[in-house]
Here is the input.
Amino acid sequence: MDEVERASAIMAAVDEGFDMQLALTQALVRFPSIRGAEQTAQDFMAGLMRERGWAVDRWRIDLDALRHLPGFSPVLSGYEDAINVVGSLRAERPRGRSLILNGHIDVVPVGPLDMWTRPPFEPEIREKWLYGRGSGDMKSGLVACVAALDALKRLGYRPAADVHVQSVIEEECTGNGALACLARGYRADAALIPEPLGEQLVRAQVGVLWFQVHVRGMPVHVMDAGSGSNAIEAAYELIHALHRLEARWNAPERRHPHYAHHPHPINLNIGKIAGGDWASSVPAWCVFDVRAALYPDQDIAEARREIETAIRDAARANRFLANAPPEIVYDGFAAEGYVLSRDEDASAVLRRAHQRSFGAPLSEIAATGTTDARFFGLYADIPALVYGPRAEAIHGFDERVELGSLRRVTQAIALFIADWCGLEPL
Ligand code: ZN
Here is the structure.
């Protein structure tokens, strides 16, 4: 078979398996694998890998083994149930380049159920889309990795280099799942992460910082509200100060070159808020959770200092907070930004694969979110390509992935594996 014939055969094999791929994706979406509840979904992934005869490594993440590593994000929650799964297919006679296929099993909370057309964990195919929480972000991508390898197997091949399929936890809050794979020793010549970023290659991604702001107040009866201090209303002032900092970071002169033409690269989100105990009492406490983005060249410690200064200055302007300064607690993402580099060979192979399956050139984006790619690129010198299907409403209601896009991306992944790793007969 010449190269063109082989590519056509691989694409046809993906098509042939596509119904089965969708069935597996739906089965995976049925597991409500939000943070702390990923185990059954991980069991399912380990089962898929075992059925295929891959070597399965399933372990509980030990935080103490990660704490000292670059890229670690602090966590306040327990890790008793934090399970990673990696399936490895090792080549008989390795001669190609090895590969890590990485996806995250965790999904974000669903929000109010009455905002969903269908229950979020009851996946449904409707008009060329698969719906469900995690359908886009990123269970379809994770299953696509398995399906791409299945397609090669259907043709009587396996990769001619080691391939590790990683199903990791906590991409959505720390990245410590991917970090744990590095700490366990997994390495390869390239990594591919099929996050649902619209069939484009991610050239740059922002960093992400999570923090909580704890605000105190002075409780009095509302009759004497003037003599108290309202922690919830004081929190508004701090939130405004944070948004002013966000505006300064978005100023054109402050932008990183990869984001020079992006209208608003840095997004600061107040994601959670709680406070007060009683409608007729001036609230004595308020806690809000923030997600802030950083540029790839922005130092985390320096960004934290700017955030702390913004909060401190706003607190100084408040009569009560001046003497009871808010406390900032770092819990979750301490993620540096990342620019894909030293990737010429891997990107060239992906460009060819994409061109074959889509019949159009691969475009690149600078993403305004983070992915686990940073671990491979920044801390292990492994070029990490983020490339996955088109999805809509990820983190929103009626999350969905487009089936045609998923099929073509799976073809591109299979072609990438064949070209990057080479193939050997089964
Ligand atoms: Zn994701």
